């Protein structure tokens, strides 16, 4: 019997992750896909460095970033002897421990791993402010220059730092030696050197910063000879030109036409290799007639399991604020989640008790939390349902909807449950003052905000939610006694309005203002204004446990 249950759980697990796709093709020639099973083998003890992007396939910001990262990979494809690009999908259950080990604070996160890195090195986080392709290229150069300034680079690497003088007697007459002369803050020379790093047997390139004023306009390119002679190499460019391309093409045309023909650049510019993306035929969807999906236990339990097993456990340690936030979130789940079975409730009770006993600590090892979760499930007989295919939150393609959709459902469900419990507790009180009093003390809503602030791993989404809820107590006063439910409804509609037409929007499930007119005519007042009393009634029914299937 136990064996059958295990096999059934395994089948469910495999089905679920047939729905969990990646944002990058494993056949990409420029981006290596890393997993738990191959990370150490591919990254450690290599002469090249790595930039590894940790992402989640459900993360909208990661989805938007993927084409730029692929273009970035294309633009530095010839730097592979010095640095390679790789990705890890942390939404894959098989990679949870790997992402937790590297202490990924949110998605996307890029980390630099130096050459010959060993097990135990957790990499250096690389911050890319605007995540544009040029910014990625420039930041990569900065990281490499910083590394070579403080460490002895591998012998296979070209010299990236600016040279003060070159020993003419050591020059090899069999191959040309070129120097990019540039200003101190310029990155051009390093980029050009990296572009030719796979052709070091044919050409040597240095970069130099002049100590004195020079008559030639910077930057310029020259060839030096063993005799000490300097020859200026013509590079035709004007202001606004891509200097890197102009310098690279000038060198290719003059010195490497046989091994790297210039004609190739035109082909490269014409064909940009991007990983295949799932495309869905667009259909015209009448927003006002869009079907309102029933809330499903499958989606709620998936959100519960993913949030606790993958989001919370992504960190290596929790500080006191994070411990408090986790304690509050578990308490809100314990009090307001619509448990369909006692087993799940006992699991949350036991995990809550574990965190409660450690709530006064300044730090909590996430390894101890993961071990407790395993103990509860394996030894104490309480567990959450295994991850199953999405129901109401299923998207038209694997990268749409899913976890973010289910998390919104979870949040709405527990705020409605809290609201109903509040009404029940005060049902016999006819005092008008009590009925009309403002509720700014929603435990569930503040627990939700704490969860998003400290554990939700989509960086962009988290920042927006935290900004939106910065003055939560004051904002709640506007909605009076129904404040928690309506504030979350207002916030969700605001997010939908912002993402309407965004590339992350599922074309078969467009972002709408909820509820649509066909689902709740009473919710709409004159001139498309909202009747908030009716909205509250609709939400209270829609997310009520008796209507969850």
From TrEMBL:
The UniProt catalytic activity note for this protein reads:
2 R'C(R)SH + O2 = R'C(R)S-S(R)CR' + H2O2
- InterPro entries the UniProt entry points to: ERV/ALR_sulphydryl_oxid_sf, ERV/ALR_sulphydryl_oxidase, QSOX_FAD-bd_dom, QSOX_FAD-bd_sf, Sulfhydryl_oxidase, Thioredoxin-like_sf, Thioredoxin_CS, Thioredoxin_domain
- One Pfam family for this entry, by name? FAD_SOX
Q: What is this protein called?
A: Sulfhydryl oxidase
Quote the Gene3D superfamilies the UniProt record gives.
ERV/ALR sulfhydryl oxidase domain, Glutaredoxin, QSOX sulfhydryl oxidase domain
Q: Which residues form the signal peptide?
A: 1-18
Q: Does the keyword Flavoprotein apply?
A: yes
